[in-house]
Structures are given as structure tokens and as C-alpha cells.
Fold this protein.
Amino acid sequence: MVNQCLAVFEQRLDNVAEQLAGQPRQEVMLSRMQMMVTKKLQELMNHNLQPYGINDTIWTALVMIYSSTERYIFPSDLSYVLSSSRTHITRFADEMVAKGWLSRREHVEDRRKMILTLTEAGVALVEAVMPKQWAVYEAIWQDFSTAEKSQMETLQRKLLDKLSSFNAFPPADSTAVAMCALCTEIKR
């Protein structure tokens, strides 16, 4: 199914190229494939975690706390590691506290700060699920050689570095912006 979707997308790109010159076809394809890979990978991870009542974001949060020396983390640090808003972290923390995997307490020296600590039930969950997650990762990457995986990692890091520092957007086309505004006004 994914390859069929990609084939349709490629055909549509070819149609665009016939109508409008200058398309960076390979760059568009690489970007679209990256988005599809990300979506499919997240679907697989979430499917594997579904029987435990968690998703990939909660799983990653649990692992980040598990990997901390004393098995605790500040919500702001968790927000940073997960690249998620503090509002989302609060919601995830509430869910994990309700399920008994985390406890929440005030910091001794600064009562404005909260500390999220993995409970014994949280530790047991991570230790029970971790081997199953590792098996999924191994299955996903089993057809790639060590050299290919190293190359993929290098290229992904390069792409991530580029995306992290990217700020060179071309200016918006004023005619197109005006047309969009006009369409919005007409629909009202």
C-alpha cells in the first residue's frame, strides 16, 4: 500500500513537471519519502505498544525517565528531550501518574519545580516491554548491513542538522497570498 501511494505521488509529480518548469523532483521525492517513513515507523511502534495502553510518546518518556540516574526527570527536561510542549508533557504525566507508572512531587529546594519519578510499576513496565521493542527495531533493520545502517545514521544526522538550522524560506508570492485571502473572503 505504501509503495502504491508513493507511485501515485510520483506520477502526480511528473504531471506537475509537465505543467510547471523547475521542479526539484528528487528533493521533493526524498522529502515525501522521509515523511512517509516517519509516519509508518510511528504506526508500527504504536501498534506494538497498543496492548500496554501506551503510545510511542509515552513510551519514550518512560524510557527517558528510566534511563536517568535516579529514575526521575523535571517536566521541562522531558519536554526538551521529547521536543514536545509543556502542555503535552503535563497531559502525558497526568496519564502516567493515573496509571501508577509515575509519581509527581515538588522539588525540595524550589517548590515551583515538579519532579516526575518512575514508580516500581513503571520500572516493571519498561523492563517488560523493552525487549519487545528491541525486537521490533531489529526486525525493521534486519535487511540492512552494518555499513548501510551507519550510512543511514550519518545521512539522517546530516538531514536533521540541516532541518534544525534551516531558516532560508523564500518570500511568499504576494499574488498567491492575495488570491488565498480573496478565496477566504468569498467563502465567508
